[in-house]
Fold this sequence. Notes:
The complex is a heterodimer. Chain A is of the alpha/beta class. The radius of gyration of chain A is 22 Å and the shape is globular. Chain A has 14 helices and 15 strands. The longest helix of chain A is centred in the middle third of the chain and has 33 residues. The N and C termini of chain A lie far apart (64 Å). Chain A folds into two domains: 237 residues, Thiamin diphosphate (ThDP)-binding fold, Pyr/PP domains (Rossmann fold, 3-Layer(aba) Sandwich); 137 residues, Rossmann fold (3-Layer(aba) Sandwich), CATH 3.40.50. In chain A, the strands form four sheets. Chain A has a six-stranded mixed β-sheet with strand order 9-11-10-13-14-15, with helices on both faces. In chain A, strands 4-5-7-6-12 form a five-stranded mixed β-sheet, with helices on both faces. A two-stranded antiparallel sheet of chain A has the order 1-8. By secondary structure, chain B is of the alpha/beta class. Chain B is 29% helix and 17% strand. Chain B contains ten helices and ten strands. Chain B has a six-stranded mixed β-sheet, with helices on both faces. In chain B, strands 7-10 form a two-stranded antiparallel ribbon. The longest helix of chain B has 17 residues. Chain B starts with a strand and ends in a 6-residue tail after the last helix. Chains A and B meet through strand 8, helix 10, helix 13, strand 15 and helix 14 of A and helix 1 and strand 2 of B. The structure holds iron/sulfur cluster (2 copies).
Amino acid sequence: MxxxxxxxxxxxxxxxxxxxxxxVPAFPITPQxxxxxxxxxxxxxxxxxxxxxxxESEHSMLTAAGAAAxxxxxxxTATSSQGLLYAMEMLYTVAxxxxxxxxxxxxxxxxxxxxxEPDHNDILAARDSGFLQIHAATCQEVxxxxxxAYRLAEDRRVRLPVIVNLDGFYLSFxxxxxxxxxxxxxxxxxxxxxxxxxxxxxxxPVSQAVAVLGGSPYSYFRYEMHLAALNGLRVxxxxxxxFARDFGRRYDAVEAYRADDAEFVFVMIGSFATKAVDxxxxxxxAGRRLGLVRPRLLRPFPExxxxxxxxxxxxxxVIDQNISMGKGGVLFAELASALxxxxxxxxxxxFIGGLGGRDxxxxxxxxMAAVTRQAAQTGQAPPPRLLYTEDELRExxxxxxxxxxxxxxxxxxxx
Amino acid sequence: xxxxxxxGRGGQGMKTAGxxxxxxxxxxxxxxxxxxxxGAERRGAPIFSYVRAxxxxxxxxxxxxxxxxxxxxxxxxxxxxxxGVLSGATAHSVLLISSNRPAETWRERLNFxxxxxxxxxxxxxxxxxxxxxxxxxxxAAARLTGVISRNSLTQAVRTELAHLxxxxxxxxxxxxxxxxxxxxxxxxxxxxxxxxxxxxxxKPAWIDLPFDEAxxxxxxxxxxxxxxxxxxxxxxxxxxxxxxxxxxxxxWICSSLCxxxxxxxxxxxxxxxxxxxxxxxxxxxxxCPSHAIRAVPEEEAAGExxxxxx
Lengths: 415, 310
Ligand code: SF4
Ligand code: SF4
């Protein structure tokens, strides 16, 4: 066991290497590329027994990943942002094939305007695809989640592909101390891939491109996927128990930090949640009973566990690093539906923050706690709030003024 | 927690500097977080990296707002507000600037609230020596914290630069250790800031974003040819060079296949590359039927010629 400094991308690559992956179809995109580069260097140096193929697009890459998994080999692939969206058609398709493999998505905001920095609209666009989703908050968790994801995907009660999500920049390019588990121990933990009836072989054709008409068979196949995804809750619990036993690190489907005796909690996903941990500690020092509830699993959605953790609390501040235009935060809506009609449900407040990597400051966490406390006291939740300050708007107005002046100076369209 | 920011230009090794200092802290038994921050632009553009080090787990993430130490590897950055060198500086922050101007000058010019130190910079135009500025900055920063031994610094530089080969590594190590020794009298002047308690926080000035019509709120640029103002040629690592002896003036292949549209035709029908915007993808080279375009590594090219086009 070595403890070393790794980026989130490096940690993902190590997870892939330790999980004994056979095949990696690849296509580059910032901020994910370092994962593929790292793996390709290992293959080149003979340190990893694996085949890598670069495809001409993410759409083909996902097709290759699904097809290879359907041939019975262990597959890994990675993408980000626009790449994930470009592959979206095949995301739904290969999940329908019930081909298990692991995809790492390095979250990055979506175009337009285009950006490099993270938020969760990319990964949430894949929410209903049939892929299960694990959201990591630290580099260590990235590595461990990739390993666990293979167990989850390949379990016969599930057999669906799994996405492990990490935030661009905040994890992908950030080095943290990471413990590399022993290769032999991981090999034992993951075990061989038993593809059961999944086997594309020469002269033994199998068709995955099945058409069904009339809604009834379609309903059957799609609902079976839903049931398999739901099974993922129990399977994930088992896997995380086993992982904790073998490696000493525990990953529950929902991380609960100082939540047991908390009156108020922050609810959020991804790496910004460690900022919330910091805020919780400091608010506790100031005598406030705060906690953090962080779903690691987003699909399947750990509803029962979230109820256990949240019912009886006075309030929960839900922080969404995404926005569904014309509705608001996706996590907020999901959580509200899980708590609807439940006795002792907390007052929920909704915040949208961290879009395109916009930082969330400690002071903002303190203020979200204060707003939520106020809401619980009055029983009146304020409208959703975008974390955006006067200074930011002033800066924006300045840029707009500069753009306007340029437009005149350069004789552009002034309409 | 120690919070340290390195500022430099793309190509000056700021990412590696952050990593070397991060590794040195790690070897001293600290929990560490280090990361570079850059946009889409590469060489020459202002970039920074940051290092956090603490005896406890680090939960804080992202850009450092209140640095204990700001290291500036390129003193021309100090004058560029957009580089954000001074952002979040307080009386507690130390500024270390690689410069041949005296510290007093910088203190006055920048109106810096805390102590200012300088590290002798290489002579202007001495590109060889400039390559080791990053390592020197790391050596100095390590000493200023007072918690990193010469040994850990040496090992950290070795770990992070092993891939460069022994000769380059040795020069970097020299630069780092020299700077380390040079800062002896200031050892320990950079300390961990006291954390302000949650009761005393300054309320964020949130506002409700007003609705703007799409003619204002859509992210469009209506002025023409603004991309000309961005010298994307700085991104290039290899330069396509046209050998006019062999060019058959087919007059359309390279110029129409260049994805950046930077090959124009001279009056005599020869292709001319605009090196200020050529990104060095080499599509022109691979498509030229007469093999009249060759690739020259940018460092070599910059030395041996002063560009073909503009
Ligand atoms: S290298 Fe690429 S960008 Fe540069 S001139 Fe050739 S085709 Fe155009
Ligand atoms: S493609 Fe080759 S031969 Fe044709 S104009 Fe360009 S450099 Fe000359």
